[in-house]
Amino acid sequence: MAEVPLGDGYALRLGVDEEDPRHPVHQVARRDGAEGEPLDEPAFIAALFGAMGVPGDVASASVLSGEQTNTSIVVGLADGSELVVKLFRTVQHGENPDVELQCVLSEAGAEFVPRFAGALVAEWPDAAGEVGRGHLAIAQEFVRGATDGWVLATRAAAAAVDFADQARALGATTARMHEVLAARLPTVGATPVEVATQAALWRTRFDDAAAAVPGLVAAQDAIESAYEAAAEVPWPALQRIHGDLHLGQLLHRDERWIVLDFEGEPLRGLAERTAPEPALRDVAGMLRSFDYAAAADGGHAAGWGAAARAAYLDGYRDAAGAAALEPAALLRAFELDKAVYEALYEARHRPDWLGIPVAAIERLVAG
User: Fold this and answer.
1) pLDDT tens, 19-41?
2) Which of 14, 210, 253, 329 has its CA at a distance of 20 to 30 angstroms from the CA of residue 42?
3) By residue range, what is the domain housing residue 316?
4) Where is the Aminoglycoside phosphotransferase domain (predicted)?
5) CA distances from 251 to 17, 143, 198, 248 (A)
6) Which residues, 6 or more positions from 135, have their beta carbon under 8 angstroms from its beta carbon?
7) Does 6 fall in a domain?
8) Is 133 found in the same domain as 153?
């Protein structure tokens, strides 16, 4: 195994040992490192599967196009089944939540995640010379014939097709995911320090967004009141969550939702992404995603978005119980915080979309 010191950004380069082609070479390198070996050669995939302990004879391999954060390779096996291997471009010491949570849910028999097949772990020194362990890749079932959740929802919104049944089913799926994660992984009570820390993050994010979007200042008092209300109510137990749940992280096939990509928000550090949080943060992320799907065709489907959000909450409530969506003040604060973050992002990167989160903020503070 070739290893090099790292900076803050990481990239993964994989190849096959020329002296022993049965074993892959895993090299962690800086982002500006040279290109590695071709990643879709069956010999390389076979060696990678050997290192992962994944059984099966490799018949074909092809790199999926379009993925941004990682590199995914669809692998056909001799028995006709298919797996997808995700190579993490950004790697950190510690257990990658995409591997950890996929494995936990798959082993629990959850039908809403792809079947976990294996993962690759390696050791390498960081910039300070400290050697640590982390995940380089994951292999899981490839779900062929599924529709991307964002594509499914935006098509329905643009055509004014009722989406209540799908949204309600997704709410139930989200609730089951939270139930399994809470049962299989530790939960902790929210301490006053943790609540205060979260509230401080909300306020910092608002200050950053208001600097980029001055129009938000008019809503500052109402937003501050919402954050204060959320900090004053009793919080539910903190647990492991998806961490970046939205329609683009979902597939839909045979009337069933499948949840993907448990890495969490990529700009957050690993410690943040693996820390227990209120499950309502995932719920708020989905509510915001329905809002975006409704506006994707030019903003003519506001009623569609409201109906989808309501159906999603109904599905979650029916599966988890009414108490799972309490306190309402906390859900509102998480949804506001997400919309504030979106306003900052859109102002910097997609100003034509800025009206989507701004309208949501106005709606939420009007409450």
Assistant:
1) 555 555 444 443 434 444 567 78
2) 253
3) 147-366
4) 62-310
5) 36, 8, 31, 8
6) 88, 91, 95, 96, 98, 99, 119, 120, 121
7) no
8) no
